Protein backbone atom coordinates (compact mmCIF):
# COMPACT_ATOMS: atom_id res chain seq x y z
CA UNK A 1 0.00 0.00 0.00
CA UNK A 2 1.42 3.37 -1.07
CA UNK A 3 0.06 6.54 0.52
CA UNK A 4 0.86 10.16 -0.19
CA UNK A 5 3.22 11.92 2.21
CA UNK A 6 1.17 15.05 2.86
CA UNK A 7 -0.61 13.68 5.95
CA UNK A 8 2.59 12.59 7.71
CA UNK A 9 4.21 15.92 6.81
CA UNK A 10 1.24 17.83 8.28
CA UNK A 11 1.39 15.67 11.40
CA UNK A 12 5.12 16.38 11.67
CA UNK A 13 4.55 20.14 11.48
CA UNK A 14 1.79 19.93 14.07
CA UNK A 15 3.83 17.83 16.50
CA UNK A 16 6.84 20.11 16.22
CA UNK A 17 4.65 23.18 16.75
CA UNK A 18 3.14 21.65 19.88
CA UNK A 19 6.46 20.39 21.26
CA UNK A 20 8.12 23.77 20.68
CA UNK A 21 5.18 25.49 22.37
CA UNK A 22 5.40 23.12 25.34
CA UNK A 23 9.09 24.03 25.61
CA UNK A 24 8.37 27.74 26.04
CA UNK A 25 5.37 27.14 28.30
CA UNK A 26 7.52 25.03 30.60
CA UNK A 27 10.08 27.85 30.64
CA UNK A 28 7.40 30.36 31.57
CA UNK A 29 6.56 28.25 34.62
CA UNK A 30 10.06 28.98 35.90
CA UNK A 31 9.45 32.70 35.53
CA UNK A 32 6.35 32.80 37.72
CA UNK A 33 7.82 35.05 40.32
CA UNK A 34 7.14 35.14 43.96
CA UNK A 35 6.34 38.57 45.22
CA UNK A 36 9.44 40.60 44.53
CA UNK A 37 10.21 43.63 46.60
CA UNK A 38 13.34 44.89 44.88
CA UNK A 39 15.23 44.82 41.60
CA UNK A 40 17.83 42.41 42.98
CA UNK A 41 15.13 39.75 43.35
CA UNK A 42 14.73 39.72 39.57
CA UNK A 43 18.46 39.41 39.08
CA UNK A 44 18.47 36.40 41.40
CA UNK A 45 15.59 34.86 39.48
CA UNK A 46 17.30 35.31 36.12
CA UNK A 47 20.63 33.98 37.30
CA UNK A 48 18.92 30.99 38.93
CA UNK A 49 17.27 29.92 35.66
CA UNK A 50 20.35 30.27 33.45
CA UNK A 51 20.84 26.48 33.17
CA UNK A 52 17.16 26.03 32.33
CA UNK A 53 17.35 28.70 29.64
CA UNK A 54 20.53 27.23 28.14
CA UNK A 55 18.89 23.78 28.02
CA UNK A 56 15.77 25.30 26.46
CA UNK A 57 17.78 27.15 23.80
CA UNK A 58 19.81 24.06 22.88
CA UNK A 59 16.70 21.88 22.71
CA UNK A 60 14.72 24.42 20.72
CA UNK A 61 17.50 24.72 18.14
CA UNK A 62 17.85 20.94 18.10
CA UNK A 63 14.11 20.62 17.41
CA UNK A 64 14.58 23.02 14.50
CA UNK A 65 17.38 20.87 13.13
CA UNK A 66 15.28 17.72 13.54
CA UNK A 67 12.29 19.29 11.80
CA UNK A 68 14.55 20.39 8.95
CA UNK A 69 16.16 16.92 8.69
CA UNK A 70 12.71 15.30 8.48
CA UNK A 71 11.60 17.86 5.91
CA UNK A 72 14.78 17.30 3.93
CA UNK A 73 14.29 13.53 3.94
CA UNK A 74 10.69 13.88 2.81
CA UNK A 75 11.79 15.86 -0.25
CA UNK A 76 13.02 12.49 -1.49
CA UNK A 77 10.12 10.37 -0.31
CA UNK A 78 7.20 10.24 -2.70
CA UNK A 79 5.05 7.73 -0.87
CA UNK A 80 4.67 6.20 2.57
CA UNK A 81 3.48 2.80 3.65
CA UNK A 82 2.33 1.47 7.05
CA UNK A 83 5.85 0.52 8.26
CA UNK A 84 7.13 4.01 7.43
CA UNK A 85 4.14 5.53 9.24
CA UNK A 86 5.00 3.54 12.36
CA UNK A 87 8.68 4.48 12.10
CA UNK A 88 7.48 8.09 12.15
CA UNK A 89 5.12 7.43 15.06
CA UNK A 90 8.04 5.98 17.06
CA UNK A 91 10.12 9.03 16.10
CA UNK A 92 7.33 11.38 17.23
CA UNK A 93 7.14 9.57 20.56
CA UNK A 94 10.77 10.46 21.31
CA UNK A 95 10.44 13.96 19.82
CA UNK A 96 7.59 14.53 22.30
CA UNK A 97 9.89 13.48 25.17
CA UNK A 98 12.36 16.28 24.42
CA UNK A 99 10.57 18.91 26.58
CA UNK A 100 10.56 16.49 29.52
CA UNK A 101 14.20 15.50 29.16
CA UNK A 102 15.09 19.18 28.67
CA UNK A 103 13.37 20.17 31.93
CA UNK A 104 15.20 17.38 33.75
CA UNK A 105 18.47 18.52 32.21
CA UNK A 106 18.04 22.21 32.99
CA UNK A 107 17.22 21.60 36.62
CA UNK A 108 20.01 19.08 37.19
CA UNK A 109 23.02 19.77 34.98
CA UNK A 110 25.38 18.62 37.72
CA UNK A 111 23.87 15.14 37.86
CA UNK A 112 24.75 12.35 35.48
CA UNK A 113 21.34 10.68 35.09
CA UNK A 114 19.40 13.70 33.72
CA UNK A 115 22.20 14.60 31.32
CA UNK A 116 22.44 11.05 29.99
CA UNK A 117 18.64 10.72 29.84
CA UNK A 118 18.54 13.81 27.61
CA UNK A 119 21.42 12.55 25.47
CA UNK A 120 19.86 9.09 25.10
CA UNK A 121 16.57 10.71 24.11
CA UNK A 122 18.40 12.60 21.35
CA UNK A 123 20.36 9.49 20.36
CA UNK A 124 17.15 7.50 19.91
CA UNK A 125 15.67 10.32 17.82
CA UNK A 126 18.71 10.27 15.53
CA UNK A 127 18.72 6.46 15.33
CA UNK A 128 15.07 6.41 14.28
CA UNK A 129 15.70 9.17 11.73
CA UNK A 130 18.51 7.02 10.34
CA UNK A 131 16.28 3.91 10.34
CA UNK A 132 13.66 5.86 8.41
CA UNK A 133 16.20 6.78 5.75
CA UNK A 134 17.52 3.21 5.51
CA UNK A 135 13.97 1.88 5.23
CA UNK A 136 13.11 4.26 2.38
CA UNK A 137 16.31 3.40 0.52
CA UNK A 138 15.78 -0.36 0.94
CA UNK A 139 12.13 -0.14 -0.18
CA UNK A 140 12.83 1.73 -3.38
CA UNK A 141 9.15 2.13 -4.29
CA UNK A 142 8.78 4.90 -1.68
CA UNK A 143 11.67 7.05 -2.90
CA UNK A 144 11.27 9.97 -5.29
CA UNK A 145 12.70 9.55 -8.79
CA UNK A 146 15.06 12.48 -8.11
CA UNK A 147 16.84 10.54 -5.36
CA UNK A 148 20.36 9.68 -6.49
CA UNK A 149 23.34 7.95 -4.89
CA UNK A 150 24.97 11.24 -3.86
CA UNK A 151 21.89 12.36 -1.91
CA UNK A 152 21.52 8.92 -0.34
CA UNK A 153 25.14 9.02 0.81
CA UNK A 154 24.99 12.64 1.96
CA UNK A 155 21.89 12.10 4.09
CA UNK A 156 23.27 8.88 5.57
CA UNK A 157 26.56 10.61 6.45
CA UNK A 158 24.83 13.61 8.04
CA UNK A 159 22.63 11.47 10.29
CA UNK A 160 25.50 9.11 11.14
CA UNK A 161 27.61 12.15 12.08
CA UNK A 162 24.85 13.33 14.42
CA UNK A 163 24.71 9.86 15.98
CA UNK A 164 28.49 9.89 16.50
CA UNK A 165 28.34 13.38 18.03
CA UNK A 166 25.61 12.25 20.42
CA UNK A 167 27.54 9.11 21.40
CA UNK A 168 30.58 11.31 21.99
CA UNK A 169 28.51 13.61 24.21
CA UNK A 170 27.41 10.60 26.25
CA UNK A 171 31.03 9.48 26.60
CA UNK A 172 32.16 12.99 27.62
CA UNK A 173 29.32 13.20 30.15
CA UNK A 174 30.34 9.88 31.60
CA UNK A 175 33.97 10.96 31.80
CA UNK A 176 33.00 14.26 33.41
CA UNK A 177 30.84 12.40 35.93
CA UNK A 178 33.75 10.12 36.82
CA UNK A 179 35.99 13.17 37.36
CA UNK A 180 33.46 14.68 39.77
CA UNK A 181 33.34 11.55 41.92
Report on the architecture of this protein.
By secondary structure, the protein is mainly α. The chain has one domain. The protein is built from seven helices and two strands. The protein has helices at residues 6-30, 39-48, 50-74, 82-95, 98-107, 112-138, 149-180; strands at 3-4, 79-80. Strands 1-2 form a two-stranded antiparallel sheet. α1 packs antiparallel against α3 and α3 (50-74) packs antiparallel against α5. The termini are far apart.
Secondary-structure topology with pairs:
Elements: E1 3-4, H1 6-30, H2 39-48, H3 50-74, E2 79-80, H4 82-95, H5 98-107, H6 112-138, H7 149-180
Antiparallel strand pairs: 1-2
Amino acid sequence: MKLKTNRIEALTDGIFAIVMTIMIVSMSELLKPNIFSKEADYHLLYTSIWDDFASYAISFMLLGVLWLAHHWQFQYISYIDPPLVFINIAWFMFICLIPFSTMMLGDNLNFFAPVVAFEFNILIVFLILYAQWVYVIKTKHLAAPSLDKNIISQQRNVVLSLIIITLSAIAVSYGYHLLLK
